[in-house]
Amino acid sequence: MTTLSPPPQYVVHAADALRERETVQAIWRGNLGQQDRMAAKYDWFYLSCPHGPPLLQLLRHASGDWVGTACAGRRRMRWQGRDITAGVLVDLAVLPEHRSLGPALILQQGLIEAGARQVDLLYGFPNPKAAAVFKRIGYSKLTDIVRYARVLRHGRYLRERMPSWLALPLGAAADLAVALRDGWWRFRAAAVRSEWRDLADPRMDSLWADSAQGEGLVAVRDSRHVTWRFDESPLERTRYLLITAPDGNRLLAWFATQDDGRTLQVRDFWSCNGAAGDRAYVLALLAAARTAGYAAVSVEIAGTASVIGNWSACGFVARGRRPVFGRWSGAQQHEDAEIFLTSADEDE
Predict the structure, then answer these.
(1) What is the CATH number of domain 10-124?
(2) Which member of 2, 150, 195, 251 has the lowest number of beta carbons within 10 Å of its beta carbon?
(3) pLDDT (average), residues 305-313
(4) Where exactly are the structural domains of the chain?
(5) What is the chain's mean pLDDT, rounded?
(6) In whole angstroms, what is the distance from residue 157 CA to residue 312 CA?
(7) What is the reported pLDDT for 155?
């Protein structure tokens, strides 16, 4: 007598982002962020990405209800001098009554199978506590993305450690000393010009095409991507600091920045020297941030020593790190690949 196996409790399905908008947002509601914000994100990130439709997975319970969703947004990347496709893992959500390790693993496995067919690489920025789970389902740690910060105005930081009557004059003295030192460094560095812009500059295309992209893993940073990633995003306002030659014509570097109250967050950057940039460009960024009244500048970078070098030389200090996990399609793995990532290589 043949014993029939019971049907699986959960089944994962590939989904069309355009058709399943309401289903996905119903799962998100109360589980992922503010409802209006997530609705705006869906229309931008899921439906308007110029790199193609996302790899979207939906999880159906045996009852027939949709109970979970996960996604990988598409990215264009370069690897060893050739174009590849990648997917960044985002927006894993499971309804509370089904929130256990099993459904989440099933969704992730569905993304892995979809990714193996459609992209060269899946990567994500999981919570460090989830590292063991990512390893269990076949991801490898690619690198760490590190947050670096540079203080411009020291009073607030000193007030956390000493009385205000002492912190204020010491902070002012430290600000002056650091500003003079930065000014001296700028005087000795290559002459450049900087200006703020509210929209991506078309010259980013020639900058990207003519720059040193290296043989490692790097996302394409042309104006098409930058415009979608920042200008068309409904979630945050981005301003660009453009670094040009003294005559203002040739674009040498750009920084995509966002305002976090007292801190200027650098979300992305590129230069004629690729990710490595130049000390003069970072010094110009610091000068512009100081003039604009910011107390600090921060940036998140995964990169080699040559990429980090100019930031460290300008006083940026590591303040925290997060792991980045990835899974290459095919048999070959590239755990030793040189990788350049910023926080813009995440989903929002």
Answers:
(1) 3.40.630.30
(2) 2
(3) 95
(4) 10-124, 146-345
(5) 91
(6) 20
(7) 67
Closest listed residue to residue 298, CA positions, set 152, 153, 149: 149
For residues 312 and 296, give the distance between their C-alpha atoms in angstroms, rounded to a whole number.
Answer: 15
Residue written as token pair 């740690």: 141
User: CA 267, CA 232: separation in Å to the nearest integer?
Assistant: 15
Q: Which helix (H) or strand (E) holds 101?
A: helix 101-118
Cβ(147)–Cβ(321) below 8 Å: yes
pTM of the entire structure? Answer: 0.93
pLDDT at 1: 46
Q: Which CATH architecture has domain 146-345?
A: 3-Layer(aba) Sandwich (3.40)
All residues at 6 or more sequence positions from 189 whose CB lies less than 8 Å from its CB, including other chains: 278, 279, 280, 283
Under 8 Å between Cβ of 297 and 267: no
Give the CB-side neighbour count of residue 171, counting CA atoms within 13 A.
Answer: 19
Q: What is the Cα–Cα distance from 277 to 280, expressed in whole angstroms?
A: 9
Q: What is the DSSP string of 300-345?
A: EEE--HHHHHHHHHTT-EEEEEEEEEEEESSS---TT--EEEEGGG
Check: CB of residue 130 under 8 Å from CB of residue 138.
Answer: no
pLDDT for 32 equals: 87
Q: Judging by DSSP bridges, how do beta strands 82-94 and 121-124 pair with one another?
A: parallel
The predicted structure's pLDDT at residue 25: 95
Strands of the chain (E only): list them: 10-15, 55-61, 66-79, 82-94, 121-124, 140-151, 193-197, 217-219, 239-244, 251-260, 263-271, 296-302, 317-328, 339-342
